[in-house]
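Researcher: Structure prediction, please.
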Amino acid sequence: MNERNMQWLTPPGASSFRFSAVRPDTLGATEYTLATIVVDTTASVSPFAAELKAAVVAVVESLRQSPRAEHLLVRLVTFNTTLREVFGFKALADIDPQAIAPFQPDGMTALFDASYEALAATEQYARLLYNQDFDTNASVYLITDGGDNHSQVATAAKVAELVGRLRQQEILESLTTTLIGINTTEREVQRALEQFAREGGLDQYIDVGAATPQHLARLAGYISRSISLQSQALGSGGASQTLTF
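Model: Predicted structure follows.
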């Protein structure tokens, strides 16, 4: 897809960031699942940054083989002290997973800000599609190895407020939100993430364990299966089944 088919959007009340998404008039189907993958690239992920990127690549490659591939729009965001959109909401056919640049770990963990941004972008784009008669649902996956220590805009309560608003509106048929901890060996970090999942109104928190290639490959399989299930549920009037990791 030509990049001219993409547009930049700014969620209301979130002038500090923009995101990109494919123009609705270039879409070929009438229903879509909006899948957002948010990846922590703070300094502490340096020892396993290559394996983490490989897991993201595996998710995209797996989804490209899905029977529902033509009904998926995927967005990838990385975060540390700041947020970076690797690519906006795009059809899988227009995403080259091998072109994803190596992650460059640095900085601190603006987890609340990254979570809020992902949800706000989902809300804004879902509303745009809804107003043009598309049916949508959405999944958001937040991958991190630590609790928030640098957010400037959002709090757990603000994330929860946005999640609640998304669930109450008719622009999305359903929404699933998953917080994923990797390499969280310290119980204090696990508790912080469990608390954020609870106070942020997220559906679930899962702990992958040590950031080994095997565990990250398992995570990639989990995310791709979860997105596929969410897409299969579109049109049913309800959310997909929540997978157990």
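Model: The two ends are 34 Å apart (CA to CA).
Researcher: Thanks, that helps.
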